[in-house]
Write a structure and sequence with these properties.
By secondary structure, the protein is mainly α. The protein has one domain (about 1-40, about 55-315). About 80% of the residues lie in helices and about 5% in strands. The protein contains 16 helices and two strands. The chain has a two-stranded antiparallel sheet with strand order 1-2. A hairpin with a 2-residue loop joins strand 1 and strand 2 (about 50-55). Helix 1 packs across helix 8 (about 120-160), helix 2 packs antiparallel against helix 5 (about 85-100) and helix 2 (about 15-40) packs parallel to helix 8 (about 120-160). The longest helix has about 40 residues, at about 120-160. The chain is elongated and about 70 Å long. Residues about 275-280 have low confidence and may be disordered.
Length: about 325
């Protein structure tokens, strides 16, 4: 177990930029954008429908006294949850290039010769890559997303005080902070499970190719799609890949779809039910009961086994 933890630490230190600094930069940009909006532009006047001129603090005070508490709750929660989209998109890019280089880079720089001399099996090495891609990377991004959310809520709190409005009733009480964070955590990992065959395929390519893993991973797929469309006039491969990306996106938007539906109910019919009563994570249960999800995990596991076998029996370095 200590050896495996050491391998995970190695993955962290060798990929610190993608796992730590990239999400920190994304979060920093978000916080800075909110800071500009709240404290730099808050003194500007805003015209609504060309009538009148209002500064943002006055509008927030109007929002405080006129908007239904249930609508406030859903609006705040939608805003908090939406942070996952930028982090999820960047996580996909970071994960893509991490997997492509995971079993290629150490062969390229010949550090594999050092690691092969250590009492570490190829299986353990490859599994550490899988755990990094599917467990640690989403966890890092989720933690930094929560830090970003708290920083933005602190800025919003100061803005509420400046506006002479209640920060508790407008921001913290309706935020449902821990529930939102839990949904975001679930969404990260459900999306990662949908990406399992892609992760396995990229690790297989990373273990096998001797050069330009990006082209080796993408060009054959494009050629297979083109050949299938010409020879059989079908698009099964493209459909499978497209459905996989659709389900990854669906994992991220599932809670938001529920929130949006409840928000519409509140606005249109003044429904008495509050979001917490209806917002039960059954939708993630539907993801986990989808047979395509588990078939994809099996395919991903087969790719990972292939990556282990290739790493074990091929030339040790490029």
């Amino acid at each position: 177990m200590k050896t495996f933890l050491t391998l995970l630490k190695r993955e962290y230190w060798e990929n610190k930029t993608g796992l730590q600094w990239v999400p920190l930069i994304i979060g920093g940009i978000a916080v800075f954008g909110v800071f500009l909006g709240v404290f730099v532009f808050s003194t500007s006047n805003v015209q609504i429908n060309g009538v009148g001129s209002h500064d943002l603090t006055s509008l927030f005070k109007l929002y405080d006294v006129s908007v239904d508490p249930r609508a406030k709750a859903i609006g705040v929660q939608m805003g908090m949850y939406s942070g996952i989209f930028s982090f999820g998109f960047v996580l996909a890019i970071v994960g893509f290039f991490y997997c492509l280089g995971a079993l290629y880079d150490d062969r390229k720089d010949r550090s594999i010769l050092f690691w092969k001399s250590m009492p570490i099996s190829d299986t353990m090495t490859v599994v550490s890559k899988v755990v990094t891609a599917m467990v640690l990377a989403p966890l890092f991004f989720w933690v930094i997303l929560q830090i970003t959310t708290l920083a933005i809520m602190m800025l919003a709190t100061i803005f509420a005080w400046v506006s002479d409005a209640s920060a508790w009733s407008n921001i913290w009480q309706p935020s449902n902070l821990f529930v939102i964070a839990f949904y975001q955590l679930q969404a990260f990992y459900v999306a990662t499970l949908w990406a399992a065959p892609i992760i396995g395929y990229l690790l297989l390519v990373s273990s096998w190719t001797k050069k330009v893993p990006f082209l080796v991973a993408t060009v054959p797929v494009v050629l297979v799609i083109i050949a299938e469309s010409i020879v059989t006039n079908t698009a099964h491969v493209a459909s499978y890949i497209g459905e996989r990306f659709v389900m990854i996106w669906a994992a991220y938007i599932t809670p938001v779809a529920n929130i949006a539906g409840d928000f519409s109910d509140v606005i249109e019919s003044d429904a008495a039910d509050f979001i917490e009563e209806d917002w039960i994570p059954l939708s993630f249960g539907k993801h986990l009961m989808d047979m395509d999800l588990w078939l994809g995990i099996v395919v991903g596991a087969a790719f990972v086994v292939g990556a282990i076998m290739i790493r074990r029996y091929r030339d040790e370095a490029l």
